[in-house]
Amino acid sequence: MRTRKPAPPLDESALYDYAVKLLGQQMRTVAELKRLLRRRIEPGEAGEAALAAVVGRLQNYKFLDDSGYARDYAKLRQENSSFGPRRVRQDLMRKGVHADVIAKTLETAYEGVPEEALARRHLERKRIARPATEKEAARVARLLIRAGFSPGTIFRILKKWDVDDAALTSIESMEDEERAPDE
């Protein structure tokens, strides 16, 4: 297997051009862009100073804005994927957005949006039919958990689908086992 030769370090103007190219390909957070740019700077204080100058310049020109990114990301995930707030929070944290920005964004993005209706829309989008067995009900519950919906919402949906109480109890016990810390 051949290994790639590392790219030579970039000076500040070349690093800026590279950053603009990266942002032209896809929206990115400050943390994501810094991670990508760190591969292309020279090690030491000079490289970190160039990185800070490039990021500051991009923020001044409004090319890089974590709050705008979070707002757009939450809106797209809510409208296109029908994801719940927990999933969007998890994704934004993984992308390096600050917790305060995430909380403020999710509060405004999911204000007035009933979680149960969003979960039902997610199920319709995935073409999930009413579960007939306990195993299918557990699969639906896991799907909704991964999509970021609260357990209360999931149980309300399954209750309205007349899933028997034994299946709901077993799903609830599975949920408790997943939340329990390993001993």
What does this structure look like?
The protein has 183 residues and is mainly alpha-helical. It folds into three domains: 12-60; 66-109, Orthogonal Bundle (Arc Repressor Mutant, subunit A); 115-178, no CATH class. The chain is built from ten helices and no strands.
Low-confidence stretches: none
Spell out the helices and strands N to C. HHHHHHHHHH
| Total of DSSP H or I helical runs spanning 4+ residues | 10
**N/C terminus separation:** 42 Å
Specify the overall morphology: elongated
Helical content stands at 55-70%
Radius of gyration using CA atoms only? 22 Å
Quick recap of the structure?
By secondary structure, this protein is mainly alpha-helical.
Topology:
Blueprint: H1 12-25, H2 30-38, H3 45-60, H4 66-81, H5 85-94, H6 99-109, H7 115-125, H8 134-146, H9 151-160, H10 165-179
Helix pairs in contact: 1-3, 2-3, 4-6, 5-6, 7-9, 8-9, 8-10, 9-10
